[in-house]
Amino acid sequence: xxxxxxxxxxxxxxxxxxxxxxxxxxxxxxxxxxxxxxxxxxxxxxxxxxxxxxxxxxxxxxxxxxxxxxxxxxxxxxxxxxxxxxxxxxxxxxxxxxxxxxxxxxxxxxxxxxxxxxxxxxxxxxxxxxxxxxxxxxxxxxxxxxxxxxxxxxxxxxxxxxxxxxxxxxxxxxxxxxxxxxxxxxxxxxxxxxxxxxxxxxxxxxxxxxxxxxxxxxxxxxxxxxxxxxxxxxxxxxxxxxxxxxxxxxxxxxxxxxxxxxxxxxxxxxxxxxxxxxxxxxxxxxxxxxxxxxxxxxxxxxxxxxxxxxxxxxxxxxxxxxxxxxxxxxxxxxxxxxxxxxxxxxxxxxxxxxxxxxxxxxxxxxxxxxxxxxxxxxxxxxxxxxxxxxxxxxxxxxxxxxxxxxxxxxxxxxxxxxxxxxxxxxxxxxxxxxxxxxxxxxxxxxxxxxxxxxxxxxxxxxxxxxxxxxxxxxxxxx
Length: 478
Fold this sequence. Notes:
Radius of gyration: 21 Å
Helix content: 25-40%
CATH class of the largest domain: Alpha Beta
CATH architecture of the largest domain: Alpha-Beta Complex
Shape: globular
Number of domains: 2
CATH topology of the largest domain: Polyamine Oxidase, Chain A, domain 2
Largest sheet: 7 strands, mixed
Mean pLDDT: 97
Distance between the termini: 31 Å
Number of helices: 17
Strand order of the largest sheet: 7-6-12-13-14-11-15
Low-confidence stretches: none
Strand content: 15-25%
Structural class: alpha/beta
């Protein structure tokens, strides 16, 4: 470790790496600090259940890594990263025998929806076809869009609620598929902006697919680390950060942290008014997470469900809407909306030969300590009878345990703060450059800044881009 750096980046999640790589690539000397014993943040994989089983601790499927204007430009394949795909990106069971699906092909997905085929195509086609233009405008801070007409078209749909957009559809299959996409927003489907979540996830699914990283999500983190180090960057593990005075001399400090964590750090010299804005920042709901070691594949009987890496388990739209509304009211749903991944079906390296892994979570009230194991497993058993008989071992994470594992998951909130209309772009403060803090040498680069949660690195990219111009007179753009 040197005595002085141009920039120190705290936190080795996707945004921390994005900021560190961008600044290092511009000739700066940077140091990346990580409190844990391995890099990755939400991209880590561990043996949580039994020896030989590899589980993704948080992020499991990576459409946004490919859709990211920044990560997609990095030569991560040269540093060991490869993606694998299931035959179907997503399946949404409606009964033991029936399921809707999302295919890489928008045309085949739409065709399977029958009389909703044209409505589905009309909803997604403009954004699938023009994603590279749209991505620049939506995956960043509030600003004058490069493509105003396209952005206006997206905004006219995306600012609506998932429920409003669902009225375009007639079939239970289309409504359920749409509801599952919007459910990733961790908001009631009646909330404004939930349509934006569904539009983005569906569009990138058709444009890039919903891949998983070969060997586990840790492979994404390891490739980022290897590329960063090849540029000359330094990584220091097992280094909790509690006081700026403990750091080597530096010109810029990048914090891949939530407002709650920032407020607990000594020596940042933040103005009282800015601290009040951080104190007023609102978290969203939490999650309860399960991982299983299985003796066999999940016994789905529907062929789409068998061949999809990601499954939305929640039945028809009304049931999903009811579950998400209850959670937003601080209650637990008896039949929760479950997000499930069966990675080992398509990446055999995740488990011993003939055996399998599975990964799932449901939304719960912020800070909940309730054990939702039975509710989640009942939902899966409902669509895959015999699932419980396959379980060899399980690992649980409630919201407190998730926050202990990764302090960025405040109260189990994996999105870094609620992403409703008032915090979609004004996060964590009311500013056109929310990455700057009141101390001009300190920047925020976490998912508590636009565009929010996900393995895309764009929060870190934008924070580093602004810091480079502010302090080193270097302008970069994608």
